[in-house]
Write a structure and sequence with these properties.
The chain is mainly alpha-helical. The protein has twelve helices and no strands. Helix 2 packs across helix 6 and helix 3 packs across helix 6.
Length: 384
């Protein structure tokens, strides 16, 4: 009527809503990032909340047990920061004081040890490195200024460090009510579908976040012990940096390894090949033994999709996009798998119903008494 197509209008309305949702998401991306960190922190704390719930007296409110767990976790974090933070801060200050002199030194690349087979081409390699270092030194001050501006910007957003535990506390307290309220808006079929999706996402995120935490702790312990025993300069600083970068898939461990080799090389560490061997051995152990064990039945995304997701995440959100790329892809895979299974089940049910109806009609036709043959009078009347 008047050229108005209801189906096309629904499609246009859906596209407009999706575009509006993406625009709002982009506008409030900082707030959503804080919410994401709060969700991840909730998954780290929730196992302790479950343990506290098992021993909590019935007369004590659930909110009190959650508050006790958060107070305990924050106290542990503060204690660890007090123990290791001072040493890491001292090494960072010392490195920042020594770095300008190292960069200005003419023999900085000559102090980098090379394997025996590379000694014949040392002058050529050192000449290339010296040229690259000279061009990079000219850009050191602008990069330092940008880094300082970034530090000041991060310091102005320290309120987020306070908001993350608060939001996490509220999420743990109100998450069951929020989930039930969301599911109550849906009909029976969609309610079952999204209930299964939420359960799968809960398992996914819990395994992923806890695996990242354990991998980070393992990296901190292994690097700090090994670097200290090997006499690597700034051992605790490099171990802490590697532990933090462990939360960034693929790119984080690679950057930590490069930073350790560069700092050790510029500082004149004589056993650089032993350091390379340790890093390679640890990465093989973590990537092929520890990581699959911790993330078993959790994040199952093909390596190709991981690489593509990391590249897309870097383009969309920088470091935060890289950090979120793997869980987002795994969540999309869960939603797609569950939706496909629900559609196949619905189609199979419709086919069974149609087959049952056809069988019922066939049985009814076979059970009906046969029609009596026409009499002579009926035949005579039909001919007339």
């Amino acid at each position: 009527m008047l050229g108005f197509d209801l189906r096309i209008a629904r499609i246009v309305w859906t596209v407009a809503l999706v575009a509006l949702l993406f625009f709002i998401t982009y506008t409030v991306s900082s707030t959503l990032l804080v919410l994401v960190f709060a969700v991840f922190f909730s998954y780290l704390v929730y196992p302790l909340v479950e343990q506290m719930e098992r021993v909590r007296p019935r007369r004590v409110p659930r909110t009190v047990s959650i508050a006790v767990v958060f107070a305990l976790v924050l106290a542990i974090v503060a204690a660890v920061a007090a123990v290791f933070g001072s040493r890491i801060q001292e090494e960072a200050l010392h490195l920042s004081e020594q770095l300008p002199s190292l960069l200005r030194s003419n023999d900085v690349v000559a102090r980098i040890p090379l394997p025996g087979f590379a000694e014949p081409v040392r002058e050529r390699i050192l000449g290339f490195l010296r040229d690259q270092l000279a061009s990079g030194t000219d850009q050191a001050m602008p990069l330092a200024k940008q880094f300082g501006v970034g530090i000041m910007h991060a310091a102005s957003n320290l309120i987020y460090l306070v908001l993350v535990p608060i939001i996490s506390f509220l999420l743990i307290k109100d998450a069951p009510a929020i989930r039930d309220e969301m599911l109550s808006w849906m009909n029976g079929g969609n309610r079952r579908l999204w209930n299964n999706i939420i359960k799968d996402l809960d398992v996914l995120l819990s395994r992923y976040v806890r695996a990242l935490l354990f991998l980070s702790i393992a990296t901190l312990v292994a690097y700090s012990v090994a670097f200290s025993l090997m006499g690597v300069p700034y051992a605790m600083l490099l171990a802490g940096l590697a532990a933090v970068l462990e939360f960034i898939p693929f790119a984080g461990p690679l950057a930590a390894s490069a930073a350790a080799l560069l700092v050790a090389g510029f500082s004149g560490y004589p056993h650089l090949l032993w350091l390379v061997g340790f890093i390679v051995a640890y990465r093989l152990f973590q990537d092929y033994v520890l990581n699959p064990y911790l993330m078993s039945e959790g994040v199952e995304v093909s390596p190709l999709m991981v690489i593509l997701g990391l590249l897309a995440g870097d383009q969309l959100g920088g470091v935060a996009g890289i950090f979120l790329s793997v869980p987002v892809m795994a969540a999309l895979k869960i939603i797609f798998t569950r939706a496909s299974a629900a559609r196949k089940a619905r189609r199979a049910a419709e086919e069974r119903e149609a087959q049952a109806a056809a069988d019922a009609l066939e049985k009814a036709a076979l059970a009906a008494p046969p029609a009596a043959p026409p009499t002579v009078v009926q035949v005579h009347i039909e001919k007339q």
